[in-house]
Amino acid sequence: MKSRLLALLMIVAANFAVAAEHTVEMKNKGEGGIMVFEPAVLHVAVGDTVTFVPTDAGHNSESVDGLMPEGATPWKGENGQAITVTVDKEGVYVYKCLPHAIMAMVGVIVAGEPTNLEQIKTDAEPFIATFAMKKKRLTKYLAEVQ
Questions:
Q1: Residue 119's CB: how many other CB atoms inside 10 A?
Q2: Is position 100 annotated in a ligand binding site?
Q3: Burial class (CB in 10 A: 0-12, 13-18, 19+), 52
Q4: How many helices (H) and strands (E) does the chain have?
């Protein structure tokens, strides 16, 4: 019994040991233009954490309904506050800054394999149609995913 418990604890500890931490900055202006997340496309492993940091005021990070893996945990950060998210399902996640979504302030997380990429590309069209500017930004980001 003790050896089984020890083996289970070692497996759990190993899973925590390999989880990486990533940071995404929320910016008024960056390498990708105005109102951007940097990096805009982030590759992670399932179980990794991503911390969204507002390097400029007035931003948040939140998942976009319907543009993430089925069963994944959605998130919604407060305006001007950092939020840390644990990526819990494999696939592609699209997120936005709610106050600046109309300006295409969006980003993409790829956890493991992009198993839902084609569905995300299709389902993102109505969301992209709401952008007042930078209408090709999300399409460009999704094209970078392999």
A1: 15
A2: yes
A3: buried
A4: 4, 8
- Does residue 21 contact residue 86 with C-beta atoms inside 8 Å? no
Say what the pTM is.
0.88
Residue 59, annotated as binding a ligand: yes
Structure token digits, residue 133: 């500017």
Dump pLDDT digits (tens) for 40-85. 999 999 999 999 999 999 999 999 999 999 999 999 999 999 999 9
List 22's β-bridge partners, or say none. Answer: 50
Contacts of 80 (CB under 8 A, 6+ apart): 54, 57, 58, 59, 60
22 assigned binding-site residue: no
Domains and CATH numbers, the chain: 20-143 (2.60.40.420)
Cα–Cα distance measured from residue 141 to residue 4, given in angstroms and rounded to the nearest whole number? 45
